[in-house]
């Protein structure tokens, strides 16, 4: 910023203060200090750079110094005046930062939950670097601890993303203790890098990415998809560190008609509760069997069982349910029922 960009009014009275204080050898009065603080606050509210403001004060001090006989007292007076100016500047800037932080958090809340009108959100979005005419996708990272905007983790993530991608229509923040990143749909490299950085910053947190959607309501839907994906991953015990909602669309389809899913689980797997030890061990056997592509040896290793013991359990499933896990005709129904059982928390949760 050039010196011409600093309005002359922000130095009002500075030359008079230097003249009077150096002539009498006195310190600045309370009124003079108050006036400096007020002008410093005005400079902060105008968004002026501190470096340019200091340069202007030093230039004025140097010009006055040519006529003074007491340069040491002149410098002491200038230091006192600039210190008061800086105090007002910093106090106002802290207030601006707090207000900006509050406005940012309020905007993120309204954007992710779709609580404001599209026009209002679009107008406010420009202030934070988003153009809501584009389609956007949302990534959410859940770590071992909750985070807010004042924590080091989101601040460092913001610095790294800005350093790598610059001003690319990106919004980074926190919501309900999770890290959230909103980026244009055509810039999937942004969310991929956010996933990588946030996992490292949160010591292996899990990341979910919603599908790209247009408009402000699309961002809210993408965010909701990411949250649902995190919840689904926890319920299903998925090991993948980064999950895409687009890859898991079958699960919302299954849960759309809950009563139908309950009927499927109870009618197909309910007889397993007659087994010694309840349905749990046999259900775990089916989960391992299907997860390994119905390869008996791999499923046995996963469960730390012998192949003979695993085969016995599969026979018990066949006997109790009437459905043979090894028969392709029965396998689809059994596997769908097993997925439904995990989604519903059965048999630990009564249906």
TrEMBL record:
Similarity comment: Belongs to the CdaR family.
Coiled-coil ranges from the UniProt annotation: none
CdaR GGDEF-like domain: residues covered: 114-232
Gene3D superfamilies to which the protein is assigned, alphabetical: PucR C-terminal helix-turn-helix domain
Organism: Streptomyces alfalfae
Record-given protein name: Regulator
Pfam families from the UniProt entry: GGDEF_2, HTH_30
Domain PucR C-terminal helix-turn-helix, chain residue ranges per copy: 282-338
């Amino acid at each position: 910023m050039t010196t011409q960009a600093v309005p002359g009014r922000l130095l009002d009275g500075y030359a008079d203060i230097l003249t009077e204080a150096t002539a009498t050898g006195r310190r600045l009065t309370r009124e003079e200090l108050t006036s400096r603080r007020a002008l410093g606050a005005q400079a902060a509210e105008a968004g002026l750079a501190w470096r340019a403001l200091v340069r202007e004060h030093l230039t004025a001090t140097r010009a006055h110094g040519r006529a003074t006989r007491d340069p040491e007292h002149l410098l002491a007076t200038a230091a006192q005046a600039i210190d008061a100016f800086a105090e007002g500047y910093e106090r106002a800037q802290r207030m601006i930062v707090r207000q900006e932080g509050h406005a940012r958090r309020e905007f993120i809340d309204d954007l992710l939950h779709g609580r404001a009108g599209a026009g209002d959100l679009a107008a406010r979005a420009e202030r934070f670097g988003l153009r809501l005419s584009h389609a956007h996708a949302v990534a959410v990272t859940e770590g071992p601890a909750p985070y807010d905007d004042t924590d080091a983790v989101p601040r460092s993530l913001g610095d790294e993303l800005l350093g790598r991608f610059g001003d690319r229509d990106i919004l980074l923040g926190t919501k309900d203790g999770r890290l959230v990143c909103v980026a244009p749909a055509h810039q999937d490299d942004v969310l991929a890098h956010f996933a990588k950085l946030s996992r490292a910053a949160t010591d292996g947190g899990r990341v979910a990415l919603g599908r790209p959607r247009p408009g402000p309501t699309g961002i809210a839907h993408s965010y909701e998809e990411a949250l649902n994906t995190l919840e689904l991953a926890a319920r299903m015990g998925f090991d993948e560190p980064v999950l895409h909602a687009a890859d898991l669309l079958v699960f919302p389809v299954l849960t759309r008609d809950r009563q139908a899913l309950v009927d499927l689980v109870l009618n197909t797997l309910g007889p397993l509760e007659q087994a010694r030890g309840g349905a749990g061990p046999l259900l775990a056997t089916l989960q391992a069997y299907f997860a390994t592509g119905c390869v008996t040896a791999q499923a046995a290793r996963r469960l730390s069982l012998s192949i003979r013991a695993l085969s016995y359990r599969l026979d018990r499933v066949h006997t109790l349910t009437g459905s043979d896990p090894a028969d392709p005709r029965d396998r689809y129904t059994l596997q769908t029922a097993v997925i439904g059982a995990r989604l519903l928390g059965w048999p630990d949760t009564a249906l």
